[in-house]
Task: inverse folding
C-alpha cells in the first residue's frame, strides 16, 4: 500500500481531464496498442517509489519514433500530459500521473539499432534494458558499464541521469550518452549530437535532455559509449571493524587516484539481512565490495595498494574472486540488498535517500546520519557507491503507520541538509521526481530553478511533458 | 589584416547603438575601469580568428561578480550587447562585436578561490589561465589536464567547451567542469551544480552553460576536477612512412582501450615548418607524439603495446623522453606548430578547421582531405588530437588575396561535409562562433538549432548576451 501524495504535490487544479475525443483519436491511431484497461493503467501509474496517485487515463504502446511523435502530437492537440514509461524502476515517483494524462510505454522499442564496435559506440531504442544491451554486444568484446542495480531501460537511465556501481571509474549517463533522438513537446523529431567523441557544436542539448526526467521530450534513440571488456577483472570483499574504517579506506583509495572500477559499502545491518535471505554466510560487519579492471599487471598493482590501505584501517578477511562465478557470488550481496531488506520487515516500504558529497566529506556525512538512524528506532539498510561519495539509506517503514513515514522523512531531511552543508547534492543518481522538489530549491537556489522553469516553458509551452516533476509549474 | 565579415554575418540592422547614457552610467560605476580608448576597444574587438568587425563601444574591466552583475544590468537596461572577454584566444570570432555593444573583460578576476585537494576539485575565477592554475596547485600533487594549446582562461575554456591534447584520456571541459557561478542576462547571480562528483538534481545547467559561448550568461566562477599527477609519465615521438600509417596505429591504440594520455599527429609539412623555425632536427615525416600516464608498471605496459602496434605500420625511430626537460623538448614540436606555420608564409593568416569524427572514420576523413589540400596549392599545416578523431588543418592564406581565402573556405566546406557524412561534427573543440553557423544547421538539423534558439530567447529575451554567435537570432 503506497501512501497518497502530500497535497502540495498534487494540487487539484492540476488534475487535467483527458477528453474522450483524445482517447478516440488514440484508439483510431493505435488500435489495441492503446489500452484503457484499469490493470494496465494501474501498472503504468506507479513505480518503485512509495507514493501513489490516480493512474493515467490510457496507456499507448509505442513501437517506433513515428508512434511516439503521433501520440505526442495528439496529446498536444488536446493539451493532455504525456508520461514516458520504460520498465517502471524509478524510485522517485517519475511515472506517477500527478496531473493526469497518458502513459507512453516505449518498452517495445527494444532494438539495438547499430553496434559500432570499432568506435566503441552503440545506438539503441529507448526500451532496450542494460542487461539486454550487454547480452547483445557480448560477441564484440565490449561492454556497457552503467549499472544502477535494476535492469532499467537505456531510455529511462538517460532520462534520469542514472549511474550506479561502475560510475566511480566509468562515469554516469552524463558522461556516456553521446547523442539522442528526441520527440519534442510539439511532436517534432530532433537529433542531439553525433557519434564523434567530443563536440563544441552549440548548446549541449544531449546533456540538457539527460536528466530532464521526461519533462522536455521523449527519448526515442540513444547512442552510448562502450568500453573494451577488461583483460583482467578481480573482485574482493573486505570487512572492517566499523563503517568509519571502511569509509576512510575508500577516501584514501580515491584520493590516491586508484582507478578502481567499483567500491561499494554495505553496512552490518544489510549484511545480516542478506545473510538471512541468501545464506551467503558473510561476516556481519561493514563490508567493502571492490572490483578492479585493467591489464593483469595493473589489476595486481591496484589490488595490492588497496589491500595496504585497508590494512591501515583494520580491514581484514580480504576474499578474492577472479572467475565470473566467484564474482557473481560476491556481488549477490550487493544486488540482493534491497530485496533482502524489504523481506526483513514483511509488508514494509523503503524510503530511499540518495545524497552525494565530495569524497572528503563522506565520513562526516555518513557517520552522523548513521547515528541519527540508529537513534530513530526505524530499521534501515545502508549501501553506497562510496567511491563517488554517494550512498543510500533505505528506511523500512510500515506504510500503515504514518508516524514511521514521518520519522523516516525527518531523517531524510536531516541527511539532505547535512549533505548540502557539506557542498553535496540531494540526489546523486535517482533524480528529483516528486520527492525532492523542495530539496532542489534549497540545493540550487530559486534562481537556478527559475532558469530550469524558463527552459521548460520555452520547450514545452503547454506543459504536457511529464508535468509536475522536478519543479512545480 | 583581417577580412571583413561576410555580409550575411553582419546585417546592418543588427548594429545596435550604444546610447551615451549607458557609457555615462558605466563610467559612473566603473570610473577608469571603463575604457572607451580606441586602442583598448580594438584589442577587445578581435581574436585569433581571421575576421574583423567594428570594435565594441567600451570595455569594462570587472574585478568581481558584483561588477559583472552591475555591468550586465546596465547593459540590459539600455538593451546593449555584452561580450565576455578573457584573454582573446578564440579562433572562431567569438569576441567580435558583430552587433555592437560592450566588452566585459574578466581577466582581472584571476584568483584561485578554493583548492580542495582532498576532493580533487578547485574553484577559480574565470580569468585564471590554465597555466596559472597549474602553477598555483603545484604543491598539491594534482594537476588540471585540459590543454587547448593557448594559455586560455578557465572561463573562456568553459564557455567554448575546450579540450586539446589530454582529452583522449581526461575528457574535455564538458566532463571536467563540476559547477559554475553565472551572471544571467538580467544580471542575476545563479549557481549550477555542487562539488559532488555526480548529481541527478534537475536540468544540467552546468553543461548547458559549458559551450554556450557567452550567449546565455557570463561565467564568474568555475569548479573543475583535478587529477593526481601520474606517478610515472613517459613521452615518445615516432615517425611513420605515411599519414595513413600513423592514423591506423592511432585507431588500433584507441580500439584496444589503451589509456593513452596524449596522441598527437603532426604531418610532414608541419615538421618541416617546425624544424625551420626551431631547429629541432626532427625527421621530416608524419609523426605521432604520445604520452603515457600511470604507475611505472602501467606506463611500461602501455608503451610496449603501442610500440608493437606502431611496428606493425612501419613506425620507426621511437624516441623516448622521461624527464620533464626531454618531454618539453618533444612537445615543443606540437606547441610551436601554429607559430612556425604562420612564420613560414610571412603576413599570412591561418584558416583553421576543427572536424571530429568517430575513430573508425578518421583515416577516410583525413586522407581524402589531405589529398584535396595538396591539390589546392594552398600551403597548410596539419595537426591533430587524433586519439579523439579530431584534427586541424591550418590553411595559410594571404589575406590580401580573396581567391586564396575562397579556396581555403572551399576546402573547409568539403572537409566538414565529409566529416558530417562520416557521423562526425564540424567542431570538436573550437566552438561555432561566427564561422560555423551554417555548418551547425547542416550538422544538427533546423529543429535542434530552433530548440537552441528557444532556449536563448527564454534566458536572454533582449538578446544582449554575445548576440549573433552560434546561430542568427
Result:
Amino acid at each position: 500500500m503506497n501512501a497518497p501524495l502530500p497535497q502540495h504535490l498534487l494540487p487539484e487544479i492540476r488534475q487535467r481531464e483527458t477528453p474522450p475525443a483524445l482517447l478516440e483519436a488514440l484508439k483510431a491511431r493505435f488500435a489495441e496498442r492503446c489500452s484503457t484497461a484499469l490493470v494496465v493503467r494501474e501498472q503504468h501509474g506507479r513505480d518503485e517509489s512509495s507514493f501513489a496517485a490516480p493512474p493515467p487515463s490510457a496507456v499507448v504502446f509505442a513501437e517506433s519514433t513515428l508512434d511516439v511523435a503521433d501520440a505526442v502530437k495528439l496529446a498536444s492537440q488536446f493539451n493532455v500530459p504525456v508520461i514516458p514509461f520504460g520498465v517502471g524502476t524509478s524510485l522517485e515517483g517519475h511515472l506517477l500521473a500527478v496531473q493526469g494524462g497518458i502513459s507512453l510505454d516505449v518498452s517495445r522499442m527494444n532494438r539495438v539499432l547499430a553496434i559500432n564496435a570499432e568506435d566503441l559506440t552503440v545506438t539503441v531504442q529507448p526500451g532496450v534494458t542494460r542487461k539486454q544491451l550487454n547480452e547483445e554486444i557480448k560477441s564484440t568484446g565490449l561492454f556497457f558499464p552503467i549499472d544502477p542495480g535494476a535492469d532499467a531501460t537505456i531510455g529511462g537511465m538517460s532520462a534520469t541521469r542514472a549511474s550506479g556501481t561502475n560510475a566511480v571509474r566509468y562515469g554516469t549517463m552524463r558522461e556516456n550518452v553521446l547523442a539522442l533522438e528526441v520527440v519534442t513537446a510539439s511532436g517534432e523529431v530532433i537529433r542531439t549530437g553525433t557519434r564523434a567523441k567530443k563536440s563544441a557544436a552549440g548548446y549541449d542539448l544531449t546533456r540538457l535532455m539527460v536528466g530532464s526526467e521526461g519533462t522536455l521530450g521523449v527519448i526515442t534513440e540513444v547512442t552510448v559509449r562502450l568500453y573494451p571488456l577488461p583483460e583482467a577483472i578481480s573482485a574482493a570483499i573486505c570487512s572492517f571493524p566499523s563503517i568509519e574504517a571502511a569509509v576512510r579506506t575508500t577516501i584514501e583509495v580515491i584520493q590516491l587516484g586508484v582507478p578502481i572500477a567499483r567500491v561499494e559499502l554495505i553496512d552490518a545491518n544489510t549484511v545480516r539481512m542478506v545473510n538471512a535471505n541468501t545464506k551467503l554466510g558473510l561476516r556481519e560487519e561493514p563490508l567493502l565490495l571492490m572490483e578492479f579492471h585493467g591489464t593483469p599487471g595493473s589489476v595486481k598493482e591496484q589490488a595490492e595498494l588497496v589491500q595496504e590501505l585497508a590494512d591501515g584501517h583494520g580491514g581484514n578477511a580480504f576474499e578474492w574472486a577472479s572467475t565470473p562465478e566467484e564474482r557473481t557470488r560476491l556481488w549477490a550481496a550487493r544486488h540482493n540488498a534491497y530485496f533482502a531488506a524489504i523481506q526483513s520487515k514483511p509488508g514494509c516500504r523503503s524510503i530511499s535517500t540518495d545524497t552525494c558529497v565530495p569524497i572528503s566529506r563522506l565520513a562526516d556525512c555518513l557517520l552522523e546520519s548513521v547515528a541519527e538512524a540508529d537513534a530513530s528506532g526505524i530499521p534501515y539498510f545502508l549501501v553506497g557507491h562510496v567511491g563517488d561519495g554517494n550512498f543510500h539509506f533505505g528506511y523500512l517503514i510500515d506504510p500503515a503507520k504514518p508516524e514511521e513515514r514521518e520519522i523516516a522523512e525527518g531523517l531524510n531531511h536531516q541527511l539532505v541538509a547535512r549533505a548540502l552543508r557539506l557542498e553535496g547534492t540531494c540526489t546523486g543518481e535517482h533524480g528529483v521526481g516528486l520527492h525532492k522538489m523542495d530539496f532542489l530549491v534549497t540545493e540550487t537556489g530559486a534562481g537556478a530553478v527559475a532558469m530550469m522553469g524558463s527552459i521548460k516553458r520555452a520547450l514545452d509551452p503547454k506543459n504536457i511533458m511529464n508535468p509536475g516533476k522536478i519543479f512545480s509549474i
About this structure: Residues 341 and 464 of chain A are 37 Å apart (CA to CA). Chain A is about 35% helix and 20% strand. Chain A touches chain B through 89 residues (CB under 8 Å).
